Amino acid sequence: MKVWIKYLAGILLGVLITFIFHLDGARGSAILAFTTELFVRFGRYLVVPLVFCTSVVAINKLRLSKNLLKTSIWTFSIIIISALILTIVGTASILLVKLPRIPITIDVATEITHIDVRGMVLSLFPFSAFDSLHESSFLLVAFLFGSLIGWESGSDQVTFKPVSTIADSFSKLFYYISVFFTEVMSVLMIAFVASWTVTFRSVIATGIYTPMIIMFLCDFVIVAGIIYPLIIRYVCHDPRPYRVLYASIAPMMLSFITGDTNLSLPLIIRHGKESLGIRRRCNGFVYPLFSMFSRGGSALVTTISFFLIWRSYSSLSIPFSDIMWVSLLSFGLSFLLGGFPSGGAFILLTILCERYGKGFETSFLLLKPAALIICSFATLFDTVTVMFGSYIVAVKTKNVEHHKVRNFI
User: Fold this and answer.
1) 39 with 198: CB under 8 angstroms?
2) What separation in angstroms does the CA of 9 have from each of 1, 3, 188, 394?
3) How far apart are CA 158 and CA 16, in angstroms?
4) pLDDT by residue (tens digit) across 343-378?
5) How far apart are CA 325 and CA 342, in angstroms?
6) Which of 36, 263, 274, 296 is nearest to 139 (CA)?
7) Lower Cβ count inside 10 Å, N or C end of the chain?
8) How far apart are CA 15 and CA 62, in angstroms?
9) d(CA 19, CA 201)
10) Model confidence pLDDT, tens digit, residues 71-120
11) Measured between alpha carbons, how far is 359 from 306 in angstroms, rounded to an integer?
12) Contact indicator for 348, 86 with CB cutoff of 8 Å
């Protein structure tokens, strides 16, 4: 059975259970919250050693094949370009389509979140290098540590061959463990979906946020169904670009329901390898970087959310200077969300409101009830960007072995 069918079955069962057992009560919500949090912690715990060991192997092989610079250029170019495309799509859609206003509510913000850039930079170099192996949120720490080992182990193939061999063995071991975990996740999706559905029902019941959700959905269809396939068609000269979208079904399901980029990474890596045929020397380098820095989905949903809030407070037209300021800030700050595998989009929205000022400091509370949905769509956009972007890098660096669609997992 295809993996995406297993995940779809888990989603349908989760929705069905929610309606049958009425899990929207206090006790049911507490049980679901505990269960999903337990699974999320275990999933993130698994990602760190997988990223660390695979990055050692990937950097080592890319250095020996003299393909590291080319792979790096393509990776970061696509990360920047995709974030720019998503920001433009989000800005254009909210300016062209005037969504209904959201009723103003009186609420008090207790704390405004900030992105601690200085702390993130310092966290790259912890007091002990082995601290990177238990950091489950900011994967760049483990990735950087693994990259340093992989780079130096390639400087002397004879002396450091045992290091490469051990890293290769552990990389394969953790990959097989992650394969087992992704299979189990199709069952655990029942609990995730049940918890997600309870919140979604409460959000959709009011009808206030429905137009915004429809706009997110339409933008996703445009990006994943038109823009990205066209890029694959003309950049990679691939006559069947929708193969990538088909390979992305299961990862998109998982990322949308959990809203967690780190938790989705093992399934993304698995589909990249077994469906799209991306070699380990490429996916061990590209996937972690995309997962950490390719957060254009957060920029897209944040720009839409902020301008929706703006129009809810004022009937005046939005000044062009403010449009550019919001779009550029969303675009720029999206690259700093690597330490927030979940909830990054709403954190970015709070920062925009606080930085914009003019009485908007706590205006993000208008969308707080829909925070889960906003973050789910942000992660969905980011996941499809990872899948399409990594495929482009693999094709342009000749690190892909094409598989037939019928052999996709």
Assistant:
1) no
2) 11, 10, 11, 31
3) 58
4) 889 888 988 888 887 777 788 888 888 898 999 999
5) 25
6) 263
7) N
8) 44
9) 10
10) 999 999 999 999 999 999 999 999 999 888 888 765 545 555 555 556 55
11) 13
12) no
Assign 197 to helix, strand or coil. Answer: helix
Nearest CA to 140 out of 333, 292, 265 is that of 292
Structure confidence at residue 106 (pLDDT): 53
Summarised one tens digit per residue, pLDDT across range 150-177 is 888 877 777 788 888 888 899 899 999 8
CB 93 within 8 A of CB 218: yes
Q: 């589909």: which residue's tokens?
A: 271
Of the CA atoms within 13 Å of residue 30, those in its CB half-sphere come to 3
CB 11 within 8 A of CB 258: no
| C-alpha to C-alpha distance for 349 and 365, rounded to whole angstroms | 10
Closest CA to 94 of 266, 6, 215: 215
Rounded distance, CA 3 to CA 186, Å? Answer: 8
Q: What does pLDDT average to over the chain?
A: 84
How many C-beta atoms lie closer than 10 Å to residue 404's C-beta? 8
